[in-house]
Fold Thiamine pyrimidine synthase.
Amino acid sequence: MTPSRGLFTRRSATRVVRGVAVAAVLTLSLAACAGGDAEVAGADSGAASFGDASIQFSWIKNAEFMGEYLADENGYFTEAGFDSVDMIEGPASIEAAVISGNVDMGIGNAISTGTIIANEGAPLKIIGATYQKNPFTILSLADKGNIASLDDLKGKTIGVQASNLSLWEAFLEINDIDEDSLTTLPVQYDPTPLFNGEVDGWFSYLTNESIDAELLGLDPVNLPLADFGLPFVAETLTVTDDAIKNDREKLKALLVAEIRGWTDAINDPKAAAKLTLDTYGPTFDLTIEKETRQAEIQSVDLVVSADTLANGLFSISDELQQQSIDTLAATGLSITASELFDMTLLDEVYAENPDLLAYSK
């Protein structure tokens, strides 16, 4: 089935966290993750050559991954030393794909990856984050619900998908909200009940259902979780511990190309949206209106921050790392920042390529 508005079966901190699947891939030999040393001298230029690479997306090929498309379209992967980079569409468990050795990198979020590490001992690390803040939100409409503050939740009915329930409960707990002060209604992913006025709020994504409401002229109101007690990084770049050790230069080359692609994307989100629609996602029932809005929101509100201005795209400050750890703790999981993050590759990338710091043009 082609995903379309209301059928985006996604956006949970646990959507790719399923113990059975992960336990199965964890039994595979870590040798599958390594693939040996990929660096070989280029025949003509002497530059490093890494052959083919692959990246697992957590979702369909929409504007969420516009930086990757531009890295491909503008030849940055090739210039970084890759013959090709396969960008594999989701929805998928990026953690399972990375652990199994089927892909070199997965794009997910700190909560799903942290959950896998805490629960399963997965040999994974996050080496960068596209989104400086997570896009989860409680969506309501101005003429129905109008939930703009925590106090506005009292007495309201909120539609929450089963896969998002643990994150919702953590949100209530960390904000000291009595579950009996509101009604949590189990729902699926189609936000039509919200749009029809059957519920007051909906567990959503700023770059998905909220845009749908906006384009329908429904005057959306958002209560972003990142601004109300649950900040964590998202669109995170996840790799294996083994790859960090044995394929370090290959991963750094991927980071260089990705940074260049995202630099182009945030400087021209309209062009990035058009490229998404025309070249990379033509089979997914996308619209230029929605992809453009998503590209703009990402470029202004999610990808860039004071930290990225100072330290470059994909940076995860110590504060952001700790916020992600604190959010995991609110869901009942214990994990340290050093168990979840490894920022040394990105540090090396910027030390070796200081020109990449200036992403704002």
